[in-house]
Amino acid sequence: MRIVGLGAGPANLYASILFRKAFPDCSVVLHERNREDDTFGFGVVFSDETLGHFKDADPESFAAITARFARWTDIDTWFRGEWTVSTGHGFCGLARVELLKILGERARALGVDIRYGTEITDPTTVPDADLVLCGDGVASAVRTKWADMFRPTVTQGKARFAWLGTTKPLKAFTFVFAPTEHGPFAVHAYPYRTSPTPLSTWIVECHEDTWRKSGLDRCDEPETKRRMEALFEPWLDGHPLLINRSIWRSFPTVTCERWNHGKYVLLGDASHTAHFSIGSGTKLAMEDAIALVDAFKVHGTKDVPKTLDAFTTARRPETLKLQKAAKTSREWFENVARYEGQSATQFTFNLMTRSRRITYGNLAKRDPALVDRTARAFALAAGLAVTADGPVVPPVFTPFRLRDMTVPNRFVVSPMCQYSAKDGTPDDWHLVHLGSRAVGGAGLLIAEATAVTPDGRITPGCTGLWNDAHEAAWKRVVDFVHGHSASKIGIQIGHAGAKASCRLLWEGGAPLAAPDAWPTIGVTSTPFNTGDPAPRAVDRADMDRLVEAFMLAARRADRAGFDLLELHMAHGYLLSSFLSPLSNTRTDAYGGTLENRMRFPLEIAERVRAVWPAAKPLSVRLSASDWLDEAGGQTVEDSIVIAAALKARGVDVIDVSSAGNSLKSKPEYGRMYQASFADAIRHGAGVPVIAVGGISDGDQANTLLAAGACDLVAIARAHLGDPYLALHAAAGLPPGTVAWPKQYLAVRR
Ligand SMILES: Cc1cc2nc3c(=O)[nH]c(=O)nc-3n(C[C@H](O)[C@H](O)[C@H](O)COP(=O)(O)OP(=O)(O)OC[C@H]3O[C@@H](n4cnc5c(N)ncnc54)[C@H](O)[C@@H]3O)c2cc1C
Ligand SMILES: Cc1cc2nc3c(=O)[nH]c(=O)nc-3n(C[C@H](O)[C@H](O)[C@H](O)COP(=O)(O)O)c2cc1C
C-alpha cells in the first residue's frame, strides 16, 4: 500500500509510525510545509490515561516521550487572591517541538520519508497513492476543497486566547484568574520542561468583550507580552513571558459529518478540534491514528474506502463525546465572570468538574479533601449544623427552603404526563405513580402538566384542575404524600395551546381526528407542524378567560394542599409559544420584541401570584433555549431577562428545560445537557433554579449542586425506572440522611 500524508503534525506522524509497524510492506511519504524545527506554541499536555494508550500502541515513542516530560499530580488554582490545591490528577507536559521531534525520528527510523518544506496546495495533485492521510491541521485545505463531501462546521468561540510561554518554573497545572475592570482573565499554565531552563506554557484567555474593552485587539505580540506581564506580575515572580506567534485568536471548533472521501481521510484537527482547556487536541489526533491503523488491521488494505468507512463509523462517536465535554469546558471559561462571587473552594470544585466528565464522586476519589471541604461549606450554607470533622451529607441530601416550604432533600420528581386521566380527573394510577415516588424519598414531586381548561389538555388522558372532581382527586394524592412521606408536592398547571388535542403518547401522539378532536387556540394561527389542524390565534378576550382559568386552578391547587405551584411556560405549549420569537410572530402588543412576547406570560405569573398563598413558592418551567440561536430562536440570554422579570413578579424558582417551539430544534442530548442553561439563569437572574435533563443519579446531582449550577435537581426518566432513586442514592450514608418509610426500615441500606 502506498501512503501519502499532507502534514507532519502529531496525527500523521503517529499514523505513519503505526502503519509501518503493522504493514511493513507499505510505503509512507509525508509532505510538511514547515521546516523540521519550526513549530507554533510551547507545550502539550497529556493525562495518565492517554499515556496508557500510547504505551500499548508504540512502546518506543512512549519511552522517549516519558523520558523527557515534566510530570505532576496537582492542580493549583488562584482565585480571589486565594491559592487552592487540588490533588490526585496525573498529567505530563512536554514541548510540542520535542514531541514532533520524537515522533519524526521514530517515523524515519521505521522508514517513513518525511519531506519538510514541501507544501501540497492541491490535494488532487498528490502523487500515486492508495491512501492519503490528511492531517493538515485546523485550516485543512483538503477539508475545504471537498467541503460538500466532508460537510464541516466551524464555530468560533466567544473568548480570545494567546498561547504564550514563560521561564517561571511551575510544579503543577496552574489556573490563574485575574479580575480587571473589563472582566476576568484566565491563565491555563503548566510545566513542559524542567531542565536546563525550566519552561512553562502560559495561555491567557478572556471573553471577547473583555479583550476589546482592554484594547488588546490593537496590540501586537510585543505589546501583548508587555501587557500580560504587567497583569500577571504577582504570579510570574519576575520571570518574562515568551512569545512565539502568540497572536490573539478565538478557538475554532471543527466538526465534520464525514471524515473520508475515496482514498482521502481527515485526521486530527483537520476533522475535529477540542478546546485546549481539556488539553486533548494532540491526544485526539494521536488516538485517531491508533484507530485508523486498527481499522486497516481488521478490515484489510484491499478496499481502502470501505476500511475508511469502518474507521469513521467506529471513531467518530468517541470523538464527538470528547468534543462535547470540550465545548462545555470552553463555555465555562467564556462565562467565568459568572462565578466571581463564589468562594475559592466552591470555585475550585466548579472548575474541576466544569466539563462534567469529572463528577463529585470521581473527584472524591482523586481529591477527597477538596470534596469534603466543598460538602461541608454547602451543608453549612443549607443550614445544617456541621462541625469541622463530624459527619456531613452530600449536597443533594441537604434541605432547601423556598418561602415556607422546606424540602428535605434536593431530588425532584420532574413533571411527567401519565395520559391516564378520565375527563381530566386523576385516579388510582396517579396516586400510585406519585405516591410510590414519595415513598421513594424524593424531596419534591411535581405532578404532571395539568390543564386549566378542557381545551388546554395535550391529550384526552391529561389531567385537569378546572372542576371540583379534579380538586378532590388531587387532594387524595396530596394527602397520601403528606401522610406517608416527608416529600413535598407541587403541581404544574398550563395550557397546551396549538399542541392540544392529540392522541395519547402510546397511540403515537398525532393530532386527534374528528369526532374526538377539539378546536385549539395558539399564539398565532400557525399549527406547530405543517399540515396539523390550525389553531385560532388568541385575542384579548381569550387572554382574560385564560388569566381567570389559571387563577382558579391556582386556588384549587391550594385547596387540594399542594405545597408548590408550577406554571408551564416550556416545551412550546401556549405560554412558551408566546416567549419564543420562532412561534410568536404576532404583530400586536404581545409579539415582536422580547418585552412584548413576555407580556402575557408575565401577566399570568403576576395574577397567579396574587391568589397563590404568600407562604407557598411559585415555580415557572421555562424552555431556556430553542437551540436555534443562529436562526433567531430564544436564547439563554433572553431567558435570563425573562427569569429576572418573573422573579420581580414573585416567582421563586425557575425550572430550566429547553426546546419545544420548533421542529428544527436540535438539542444536544447527553448527560446533564441543559444544566448550563440552569447555571446561566441562576447566576444571570439571581434566582434559584431547578436543573433537569439527562440527570440520572445522585452523583450527577451532587456535581451540579456543589458547583453552584442549580438549587434543586429534577429527574424524570430515571425516576420512572427507579421510584426509590433517592433512597438508593443514600445507600451507605448515615441513617437519617433520607427519610425511609417506617414500613420498610428492615431493608434500609
Ligand atoms: C493554544 C493551544 C493550546 C493547545 N494546547 C494543547 C495541549 O496542551 N495539549 C494537546 O494535546 N493539544 C493542545 N492543542 C491542540 C494541538 O496543538 C492540536 O490539536 C494538535 O497539534 C493536532 O495535531 P494535527 O496533527 O491534527 O495538526 P497540526 O499539529 O496542526 O499539524 C498539521 C501540520 O500540517 C501541516 N500542513 C498543513 N497544510 C499543509 C499542506 N497543504 N502541505 C503540507 N503541510 C501542511 C502544518 O504545517 C502542520 O505542521 C493546543 C492548541 C492550541 C491552539
Ligand atoms: C413520560 C414523560 C412525560 C413528561 N411530561 C412532562 C410534563 O407533563 N411537563 C413537563 O414540563 N415536562 C414533561 N416531561 C419532561 C420531563 O419533565 C423532563 O424535563 C425530561 O424528561 C428531561 O428529564 P430526564 O432526562 O430526567 O428524563 C415528560 C417527560 C417524560 C419522559
Structure, explained:
By secondary structure, this protein is an alpha/beta fold. The chain contains 24 helices and 30 strands. α1 (10-22) runs parallel beside α10 and α16 runs parallel beside α17 (540-560). The longest helix has 31 residues, at 304-334. It starts with a strand and ends in a 20-residue tail after the last helix. It binds flavin-adenine dinucleotide and flavin mononucleotide. Flavin mononucleotide is lined by residues 414-417, 448-449, 492, 568, 570-571, 621, 657, 692-695, 715-718.
* Helix/sheet category: alpha/beta
The small molecules bound here are: flavin-adenine dinucleotide, flavin mononucleotide
Give the strand order, joined by hyphens, for the main sheet: 21-22-23-26-27-28-29-30
Low-confidence segments = none
| Strands, total number | 30
What overall geometry do the principal axes of the alpha carbons give? globular
- CA radius of gyration is 29 Å
Helix content: 25-40%
How does the major sheet shape up? 8 strands, parallel, barrel
- Individual helix count: 24
On the 0 to 100 scale, the average pLDDT is 96
Q: Name the beta content range.
A: 15-25%
The end-to-end distance, rounded to whole angstroms, is 61 Å
What's the arrangement of secondary structure elements?
Blueprint: E1 2-6, H1 10-22, E2 27-32, E3 43-47, H2 48-57, H3 59-68, E4 70-72, E5 75-79, E6 82-86, E7 91-95, H4 96-109, E8 113-116, E9 131-134, H5 141-145, H6 147-150, E10 152-156, E11 159-166, E12 173-178, E13 185-193, E14 199-207, H7 208-213, H8 221-231, H9 233-236, E15 241-242, E16 252-256, E17 260-261, E18 264-266, H10 281-299, H11 304-334, H12 344-352, H13 360-366, H14 368-381, E19 400-402, E20 405-407, E21 411-413, H15 428-439, E22 444-451, H16 468-484, E23 488-494, E24 521-522, E25 536-537, H17 540-560, E26 564-569, H18 574-579, H19 594-611, E27 618-623, H20 636-648, E28 653-657, H21 675-685, E29 689-692, H22 698-707, E30 712-715, H23 717-721, H24 725-729
Bound molecules: flavin-adenine dinucleotide (FAD) and flavin mononucleotide.
